[in-house]
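Hi, here's the filled form for the chain we discussed.

Project: internal
Contact: R.S.
Residues: 339
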Amino acid sequence: MSLPGLLRSVLDWERALLAADSFVAWLEAAASPPGVPHNAGVVSLILADPAYELRHLTEGEGAAPERALPVTFVDSLEGRAPQLGALHAPWIGAYRVADHGLLYPASPGLTHLLMLPLRRGGRLVGTYSLGGRGAPPELALVEAEILEHVAAVLSASVERLMDRARLLRGSFADPLTGWNSVRYLQARLREEVAHCQRYGGSVTCLVLDVDRLQQVNDRHGQLAGDLALREVAGRIESQVRASDAAARIGSDEFGVVLPSTGADGAVPLAERMLAAVSRGPLELGGGLQCVLTVSIGIAAIAPASSADRKAQADHVVANAIAALHRVKQRGGGGYEIAP
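And the returned structure, exactly as it came back:
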């Protein structure tokens, strides 16, 4: 391909990346850079996803991302390949298994490599890499400034899709606790149901209610109750894993979704939450303190592949709430697993 033709192809490719309306569609576009045949097996993408946002996004879209592009999600780029921490600009050079084998674990015959850093807010959040056999990838022929522009488009288009997904899922923060909204929890639960339908396994939902919070409001005022609720939320959140989804779903209720977890597997988390909330007094302001407990309902589901996703998600929440009410009737401060 001539250089002018390659530049036109680069522009067309960037337009396709920016036009993608889903993360899986973006991966499909990213899998076909200029000068590289589709499914040639020389394209690799590593993305830092410590909050599991991108992993959840792909689950919600109902497709396996690896079918579009070899993509690896990691909690830390340096943990995957320490040398990536020094990647500040596009890099072109010889492929060495000792240095780059983690980027292409099963791609023999590579001789050249082009790596583009993906950055957000000045921070490295991923790498997009092209491996060449016998010669550098054609994209490596363009000027460094153009490669930097390509890397910026890759980064911006991924971030745009993440922002769009956050809006669609209604993941606006609750102003009091900073937790996600109930709409976020509903969407995340449907995503995990879809994952179970595709790969098997179970998903568990916990619903927590703060016991006797209304008494604090009645005795000391709404501000004191809000302070207590905020501290309870913080203690609960300290026990939640990054892979879990948590949200405030009512005035004094919280929900937590545990991916790939059965009901029995949720018991240790429930016990830690109970201990964290009751471990000491809560500050109400003005020197006032109180001790509160929570009640927890637990329900799990292993959805059938043909089941309606929303109905299954609603069903597991309803079961968790029913178990929660039975705990409340016994006086609170405990948990129950829905039958």
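Let me know if anything looks off before we file it.
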